[in-house]
Amino acid sequence: MTVFQDADCSVEVEQVLYEGRTYFLNFPTTDEKLIKAALADAGIEEFVSWHRLNRVATLRVVNRIGLITFFGRVFDVRSEKLLEAETGARQFQIILDDLALLSRHILFEHTTAPSAHRSHRTDSQQPSLLERFNYYRQTCLPMGKRPGLEALLERILRNPHSRLVDENIRDHIWNVRKPSGQTLRSLFHHDQRFTKLPSDHFLTVSRPGLRISGTGESIFPLKALRTRGGTTFDTPENRFVKHLLLDVERVCCEVARKGLVSGSLFEQCHRLLNLSRTSLRRDFFQDVGQLQAVPSSSPTLTQRHGYRDLYRIFVRNRVGAKHLFEDFAEESLFIELKDIALLYEYWVFYKVAATLLKPGAIFLARDAVVKEGRIVNSGVVTDGVLTVHFNRTFTRKPGGSYSLRLRPDVVVEYVQPGGVPISLYLLDAKYKSVDQTPEEEEDPLLQPIRAVTTTDLHKMHCYADAIEGVVSAVAIYPGTKFLFYPRERSVGPITQPQPMASLHGIGAVPLLPGSASVAFDEFMKLAKAGDNSAAHV
Which of 226, 291, 484, 528 could form a disulfide with 494 if both were Cys (CB 3.0 to 4.6 A apart)? Predict the structure, then answer.
């Protein structure tokens, strides 16, 4: 299988592909099933445009970096917007490592809050219903190298946990070796069967109570209960597995009932619901009882394959005090093509929070929201003076949007001592740019000129117009050109942040991971100063 840069299939690509570019694939076969299977295994079905009668297809990977393996070849998909010299996997890891550093100064403990105006809800430490569904969706449905819930259950059922028990069985009385009180009581059970014996028989001669009055015969019981050793699967560990399946079922039912998701997420919700119900109908779980307490100290639950995987899912599903990107980072370990656009959004949020907020800022709240057909996290971080929101929703109500529901990535909010918001600064992470490098200046040693797209500037106008209290709305993007349009029409477009007297307006601020950004730093200084001239307009 060969990959080409041009439609004429004359310039072959060796190994490196860039996301956002269009390439042409020349399949080694015309077998439709084989091609579809190869595309599915590589995880690139949505990025390939292909007709079954044509051996040449187009490939355009969008917002994903990492590895593609198909038809025996491995390709490195990179971003040319940032860290271009690194491999795709390395680009992703560098940003992830930087995220971990940026998040260190944000705390979850409410006791460290020095400001009387800072509030903290105790329920914010608990994940919401949508967060719990999202984590179950990510961990229980098979994805890439992740086995999924069904495979983990099969692993458990191949070697299930059991325990020895003494069980009472009804047997012939001559098989009873060690009679007990229960054995004696069972001799005259209501369904007991007796046999007649002569009264001088050695089994009845010393038992006058068994004689039949007026005859020379006696009765003697034939059955009795005896104890034997056995095994049972009704253990706390297996009760835990059943409890987890019931919890998955409950969460999916609630999500579907409340209509929290739609489209492909709704389909995944029903898949997960059917998976849990099918698993619970297995014969294995019919004799497993209800869980009374989670056996957290059980070696089986913490060490045995299958059990420990489900226990980890159970524990992490209930942990609310974790950073917004942690679930996303964990999910990315199991897939080759990783979502660089979503990672950039998280990175921008933490970069803004780390730049504006004092050390020791805390999470006031976190949740999950459905955005553009996928579940993403939202959060609120504050240092008592500034509050930074991630994926804040503005609806048609006072202080919100006067038209449609809008959800910018990052919202910086200045709050008065009484808790009343003064002004809003919107920063929307846009993993997009256009190359404006003149052809005569294309030099591999020089940095290309990348500018914000016009569509993204239109979006900033939308935010500034529709949302009440907005001072400025800017796109944060992986580019090189700073651009700001002041609301004051007598002032022309600004291409450097230093001469700006006010942040009233819309624009774009370049910000690249792994590179210094003077424009971003200067813009943040102006925002941190509060732009008092703008705040009181």
Answer: 484
Average pLDDT of every residue of the chain:
83
Token pair recorded at residue 508: 């774009």
Lowest mean pLDDT among 106-120, 162-176, 468-482: 106-120
Q: Is the pLDDT of residue 432 over 60?
A: yes
What does DSSP assign to residue 359?
T
Question: Per-residue pLDDT tens for 153-198?
Answer: 999 999 999 988 766 777 777 777 777 777 777 777 777 777 888 8
Which structure tokens are listed for 537? 């307009």
Q: Are 300 and 161 in contact (CB under 8 A)?
A: yes
Q: Quickly list DSSP for 222-270.
A: -EEEEEEEEEES--HHHHHHHHHHHHHHHHHHHHHHHT---HHHHHHHH
Q: Which of 384, 332, 390, 346 is nearest to 366 (CA)?
A: 390
pLDDT at 443: 55
Burial of 482 (0-12, 13-18, 19+ CB in 10 A): buried
| pLDDT tens-digit map of 485-508 | 998 888 888 888 777 778 899 999
Query: Tokens at residue 67, please?
Result: 């590895």
Rounded distance between C-alpha atoms, residue 223 and residue 209, angstroms: 18
Cβ atoms of 503 and 472 closer than 8 Å: yes
Would you place residue 18 in the very low, low, confident or very high pLDDT band (cuts 50, 70, 90)?
very high
Q: What pTM did the predictor assign? A: 0.74
Residue 440 is predicted with a pLDDT of 58
Ordered alpha helix ranges (H), 318-339: 326-332
d(CA 440, CA 496): 25
**Does 223 have pLDDT greater than 90?**
no
Residues 337 and 340: their CA atoms lie apart, in Å, by: 9
Q: Is the dihedral of CA 298, 300, 302, 303 positive or negative?
A: positive
The answer to whether residues 128 and 367 touch, using CB atoms and an 8 Å cutoff, is: yes
Q: Distance (Å, rounded) from C-alpha 83 to C-alpha 65?
A: 12
Q: Which of 1, 49, 62 is nearest to 29 (CA)?
A: 1
Most distant CA atoms of the chain, gap in Å: 127
Sheet with 56-59: strands ordered across: 2-4, 23-26, 56-59, 48-49
DSSP 167-181: EEEEEEGGG-SS--H
**Is the separation of the CB atoms in 506 and 472 below 8 Å?**
yes
CA 396 to chain centre: 29
Dist. CA 363–CA 113, nearest whole Å: 10
Q: How many CB atoms lie within 10 A of CB 402?
A: 12
* pLDDT at site 117: 32
Asked if 474 and 460 touch (Cβ cutoff 8 Å), the reply is yes
Q: Going by C-beta distance under 8 Å and a sequence separation of 6 or more, which residues neighbour residue 176?
A: 183, 224, 226
β-strand 421-429 against 470-477: which pairing, if any? parallel
Question: Has residue 324 got a pLDDT over 50?
Answer: yes
> What is the average pLDDT across 3-32?
88
The residue extents of the domains of the chain are 2-78, 89-124+338-535, 140-162+233-317, 163-176+183-232
> Which whole number is the average pLDDT over 359-376?
79
